[in-house]
Write a structure and sequence with these properties.
Blueprint (H helix, E strand, L loop, with lengths): L1 H24 L4 H20 L4 H28 L4 H10 L3 H19 L1 H7 L6 H30 L19 H9 L2 H5 L6 H4 L2 H12 L2 H22 L10
Helix pairs in contact: 1-2, 1-5, 2-3, 2-5, 2-6, 3-7, 7-8
């Protein structure tokens, strides 16, 4: 598909520019910012170029724009105002003299993830027979996930701004019930796309999207790296936090 090839080409170009930027500043966190805005632009592109119902594509574009614009701005604020994220510092130290090429491969891999993870947007944009009830439920899920994600990020930011909390795990608000509520709400928002795509020829494949995202967040790109970095930076306090608080799904503390 030409539209998908355009996304791939744009993603590679954007990540190459991001890699050049981090070469000068030694801050690989820019990869997360570019990934978020890349997902946003990919979603908008698919919404504009799709063949599905116009109002559905408008809803898709609005959802993707709001979600990833907020995420990209939040990440950009951290990257441009703080030191390199501990996860990337650890990667830099582990790769030693091979850090430059190692990060190049990593950045290009993230370009591939933009293409892969934006495919649900493309599938939804082809839906010519959207279901009204499914669309309403999708909107409710998306709004709740956006509220939860925004709230948890604000709670964590406020906690970190207090010098007295340095070296401690955040146990405020959503963070009292989940060690990674931001990842939970990220995962929750992906349930909106199978609902928006219900009625299309891709509806069964779209049902796999939340499961795939759960695997990425829980086992690959999200929680494992965050847990390792939290143990390095917060030590015993975080080990106690692990024993009392759910890793992913918000639940009562032990």
């Amino acid at each position: 598909m030409i539209s998908q090839l355009i996304v791939i080409a744009f993603s590679i170009l954007a990540m190459m520019l991001a890699w050049c930027w981090q070469q000068k500043r030694e801050n690989a966190g820019i990869v997360d910012v570019v990934w978020a805005f890349g997902m946003m632009l990919a979603g908008l592109w698919y919404a504009l170029s799709g063949s599905g119902a116009v109002y559905l594509r408008l809803c898709l574009g609005l959802l993707v724009f709001c979600w990833f614009l907020r995420l990209g701005m939040y990440l950009a604020k951290r990257v441009f105002n703080e030191q390199e994220d501990g996860r990337y510092r650890a990667m830099r130290l582990a790769m030693k003299q091979h850090a430059s090429m190692g990060f190049l491969v990593f950045f290009l891999l993230q370009a591939g993830f933009i293409w892969l993870l934006s495919l649900p947007f493309w599938a939804v944009a082809q839906n010519a027979q959207p279901q009204l009830l499914a669309g309403i439920i999708a909107a409710i899920i998306a709004l709740f996930a956006l509220w939860g994600e925004t709230t948890s990020d604000k709670q964590l930011a406020a906690f970190r701004q207090n010098p007295a909390n340095k070296g401690l795990a955040c146990r405020v608000g959503w963070w009292r019930y989940s060690r990674h509520p931001n990842y939970f709400f990220e995962w929750l928002h992906w349930f909106a796309y199978p609902l928006l795509g219900w009625g299309s020829e891709y509806q069964i494949w779209l049902l796999l999207v939340p499961a795939i995202m759960f695997c990425f967040l829980y086992f690959v790109t999200g929680i494992p790296f965050s847990e390792q970095q939290a143990l390095r930076s917060r030590g015993e306090d975080y080990r106690n936090y692990q024993q009392t608080t759910s890793m992913f799904l918000p639940w009562f503390t032990k």
